[in-house]
Amino acid sequence: MKKTLSLILVLMLALSAVCVLGYAEEDRMTITVMGIDWGYGPSANSSMEQYWEDMFDVNLDIQWVNYNDYNEKANALIVAGEQPDVLQINKTDGAYYYPIFTQAIENGQFLDLTPYLYEGGLIEGNAVMKGWPQAMWDQSTYKGGIYILPRSKAEIAQQSGITVRRDLMKKYGFEDEPTTMEELKTWLIDLSNAATEGEGYKIYALDFYGKFMNNARSTAFAVAFTGQMDWGYDEEGNYEYICFDPNYINFLDWMKDLYDAGVIDPEFALSNSETSKWKGGRSVAYLTAWYNWNQSADRVTNRIFDSVCPDDYEAWCILPVTGDNGIVIAANSSDIDSCIAISSSVSEEKLQKIFQVFCATEEEYPGYDSILAYGVEGLHYYLDENGTRQKTDEMKAENTAGYVGAWNQIFMKVDADQVASKFMRAGASRASDEAIERAYAIKDVLANYLNETGLGFSNQNLFSTTYNESWATLTSDVDSMATEYVMGKISADEWNAFVKGIVESDVYQAILTEYAASAE
């Protein structure tokens, strides 16, 4: 009888515990979320999602929408006033604050987070956010309010690296690096010619093709001559597009000298990406991300050049050179790599929960950074005898279903450090100490220049109806005219007259006026 009663008591306690647990799970606060699926096809209620729910004692009702359909889906919900509690904001035409979103802000559909970030102490109390410069918050601001919450700070001035073939530099005696745009031009022409003769096939100066406007292979060079990004200010303090800066023609002249010397693909305008391909060993230099030459010390474990290229090809990156009005640099259009917005319909209690869940850090939750990047040990990977992460087929499936490694677009993550992540990998894939030192030196130059000049996009988060409606038509011939000038088909007078016609047009002037009004 005693044994029976004891068994009944144990069963009752167990049943009670189950009921309490079930009640607790049902009693968890639910936060609705919508984020971008970049083609992985994550599953709802995955093991990764359940882990986050248990970590924060919350129910996450997440809808991942394929990137092809995301803008349409998000905008439909915004227009209908049915946005979820937390919505990832995708860039539209290069801006996080785009018309449909800003109209919803005007309608009061999204929270102004400013008081929570500053007076509420959210920035100061967060190990990641408190390290962000004011520029991050300036880029997050619309009409004096902050309606988007960045997830991390992207690497600085990304498309600012003059990457070169160092093996050719050594072989042909060009190890003295240029420091000015004029020196760079001569250096590129001479090394291209020497390498072409020595190697027995054409090696161009630059891996360059396609458009002049918004071309990652040329923009940083143009900035060295103009001192501004796509949009800056003229001498009177008016907004100005980079191609219409009076000094832009000096950049075109620089490119024209390379073209006239025969060291740029004569058919660059046809967007032939193979003829002068740097990674295929067909060019001396390549303007790209300043951290994308992370070749392993053995040049084999982590290849930079195409697999058909010899292993003795060596990648290097020279320090940013100086032009008439700046250095070779391209500021990011935004330092915000991704962001979320919070619906104004959430209660104060839910808002605080959202802050807890979506602004977590390693300091508060030990192991957080690793889980965010790699998932849960034993579930999404295992460690082999060398301590290296490995995955079984089942774990690979769990990774895909759980969207492991991609939650950082809606959750807080540490700021990007491309030198550490690309150059300093453990083992044979680690770059040489010399390369690591150079990478950090480049980063220091870029960071100091940005801090000293405040280089950026002067039209950040500004709006112009005329721009949205007419910019593509207004500038439809700029690329072709720039190409014709570089190829010697039109004169400087013709280029200047062309630019003058645009700058003095009613449409361009209306854009400037509307930008100025938007900034007030």
Written overview of the protein:
It is built from 19 helices and 17 strands. With 520 residues, it is of the alpha+beta class. A hairpin with a 2-residue loop joins strand 13 and strand 14. The model is unreliable at 1-24 (pLDDT under 50). It is 41% helix and 12% strand. The chain has 2 domains: 26-154 and 337-409, Periplasmic binding protein-like II (D-Maltodextrin-Binding Protein, domain 2, 3-Layer(aba) Sandwich), CATH 3.40.190; 161-330 and 435-459, Periplasmic binding protein-like II (D-Maltodextrin-Binding Protein, domain 2), CATH 3.40.190.10. The longest helix is centred in the first third of the chain and has 26 residues, at 2-27.
What is the share of helical residues? 40-55%
The profile of the biggest β sheet is: 5 strands, mixed
Total strands: the figure is 17
Rg over C-alpha atoms, rounded to the nearest angstrom: 27 Å
- What's the helix count? 19
Total number of distinct structural domains = 2
Task: Average the pLDDT over all residues and give the rounded result.
Answer: 92
Fourth-tier CATH superfamily name of the largest domain: Periplasmic binding protein-like II
The SS-based structural class is alpha+beta
CATH architecture of the largest domain: 3-Layer(aba) Sandwich
How do the strands of the widest beta sheet line up side by side? 2-1-3-15-6
The low-confidence runs, each spanning 5 or more residues with pLDDT under 50, are 1-24
Which word captures the global form?
globular
Distance between the termini: 84 Å
State which percent range the strand residues make up. Answer: 5-15%
Classified by CATH, the class of the largest domain is: Alpha Beta
Q: What oligomeric state best describes the polypeptide chains here?
A: single chain
